[in-house]
Amino acid sequence: MKVVILAGGYGQRLLPITNNIPKPLLPIANRAAIEHLILHLTRLGFNEFIIQLHYMSQAIIETINAMKLKNVSIDYIIEEKSLGSAGCLRLSKHFLHEPFLLVNGDILFDGDIRDALKTHLESKSKFSMFVKQVEKCGSYGNVKVKNGQIIDFIEKPNEGSEISKLVNTGIYIINPELLYLIPENRYFDISNDLIPLMLKNNIYLNAFHLKGYWIDYGTPRRFAKLNVDWIEEKLNLPIPAVQILPRIYLGEHVTINNNVKIVSPVIIGNDVTIEENCVIGPYVSISSNIRIDSGSVLHHQAVFQKYTLNYENKFVHNSIKKISKEIH
């Protein structure tokens, strides 16, 4: 089964960091986020990918190609104008002749979905969505399910208008005949357009409960949560770094100078230099190719090339020396 990954969004909710880096390339646990996603899917046995691109497409192509995946084929489809999460699929219809897996490029999950794929194919369903139970549904697609069938759907419901505690995870199995419901060369969204259209046309929509960890990291708060969850080892995904002490991970070519204290949990990326007299941690993630100034005190932060995601879940320009305010 082919996998289509939607990686063309602007990442507006993650501004200003996405002015310089597309959302799928946000570094997390010493890799670009989309690398973790693709590697998990390859571990599940998928080896044919279509990556739908628009914003900063060349940077994403270069990053994925640099992975040098063996026995994996990848095709890139670049939208000249933004066509939405469904509209872009019409550009790939000549690749999609059998049921395919569709995955949003701004999620991560660690579950095994292969049994659900088998059930979808055996049931001859046309559309299946993976759903997850959450406490607050307001920033997700809210799904009502009865006997395994989706019977109602509201995108980002207002408080008090939720129809269940289940949300759309952004993982779907789609049969290619449904692509003809999508208009050509027009903006068309899965949640706002395609799903309501299918419900209106009484198309049977399957729901599978996604097991394991899942997150949509498309906001600063949720991206901060992903960093914390990863260094707390809540994801069953590998970290490409050496664990030198419990929950302290170091990438390659890390230089740590004199009188540096590291308080777990911490993940430090490749080619990082930490000058003398620093305190790093707890709950710190440092991306690759970063130099931490002498005397810096970092905690509850994710540090990137130009920005730091701070303890208030806000991106600020890097000026990280001697940050010491406590978080409660």
Question: Explain this structure to me?
Answer:
- The chain has 328 residues and is of the alpha/beta class.
- The protein is 18% helix and 30% strand.
- The strands form 6 sheets. Strands 1, 4, 5, 6, 8, 9, 10, 11 and 12 form a 9-stranded mixed beta sheet that branches. A 7-stranded mixed beta sheet has the order 14-15-18-21-24-25-26, with helices on one face.
- Strand 4, helix 2 and strand 5 (73-78) form a beta-alpha-beta unit.
- The radius of gyration is 21 Å and the shape is globular.
- The chain starts with a strand and ends in an 11-residue tail after the last strand.
- Pfam families: NTP_transferase (PF00483).
- It comes from Gottfriedia luciferensis.
- Residues 2-229 form the Nucleotidyl transferase domain.
- This is Nucleotidyl transferase domain-containing protein.
Number of helices: 6
Largest sheet: 9 strands, mixed
- Percent strand equals 25-35%
In which range does the helix fraction lie?
A: 10-25%
What value does the average pLDDT take?
A: 91
Strand elements, count: 26
